[in-house]
User: Fold these one by one.
Assistant:
Number 1:
Amino acid sequence: MPDLLLCDDHGVFADALGSALGQRGFTVLATASTLADAKERVVGHRPDVCLLDRYFADGDGLDALPEIAASTRVLVLTADGDEQGTDHALRAGARGYVTKMCGLSALCAAVEAVARDEVVVETGPARSPAPTGDSDAHRLAAHLTDRERQCLELLVEGHRTTTMARGLGVSTTTVRTHVQSVLTKLGVHSRLEAASLALRHSLIDVPQRSG
């Protein structure tokens, strides 16, 4: 099984993905939460495949692709499924481009294919454009399912994945799937952005606290 380097600026997601991939027989050599760390660790660890997110605090992962791809095969794993990003990634040296909504089995298959030097593209619906006003935000929020809206409410209250799972009576994997769907439908890149958007545009009913 290929050795992996996970590069994602969302620590909770990276930890969960690393654990899930480990259970599938992959070895995660290291993780990186910034592009600077990714460039350093790909040289230090020489993984068979680098799973690279699209956006980091210190830049766009696609801009760093040529340098990282010089040391290993790169599979871009992102919430964005736009064709332009896919084309850019493949031209810059990526061997694959998959969305975080593809599912664990599809991701594992993509990793194995990239390790064999095959090209893999697995894109879902493109992320909705970021809302610019109340009407846009409410239009996007109207596409949320009841369970996704519950997850958004819990995000606003600051709950973590494990407490959300207990409260909803589902697995943590199911919660992560719902949360990722919320991010995609609202056109944001993080849980914090989703919560901020919900509060800013009154997308949910915030309970009044006494005292």
Note: The chain has two domains: 3-122, 134-200.
Number 2:
Amino acid sequence: MASSGGVDITLEQLPAGGGLVRISGELDLATVSQLERIVDGTSLNAPLVIDLSECSFLDSSAVRMLLETGTRAEQAGGHLSLVAPDQAIRRILEIAGVDTVLPVHATLAEAT
């Protein structure tokens, strides 16, 4: 688990294989490098789910990182899914067009 500056990031294994990254707090320029380190340590050729259920803020650096991770996962033969039940977070993803590139789910059950 990584924790700093108002963000907690945990990595778990999905029951069917792959990784689940849970983010709680603000994901911005000051904290996105922690998420990058965790994702870099996972296998991108398996399903990866990033759970933003407890994420209270995303900035453009976080959006960029999510898009880049999705591209890297696809190139490795895996895929990235996002969980974003909060309407404000979903709106950020929609405005940035993330939802047209990556699947964005309202619940973790939908994503796994």
Note: The beta strands are 2-4, 7-13, 19-27, 47-58, 79-83, 104-105.
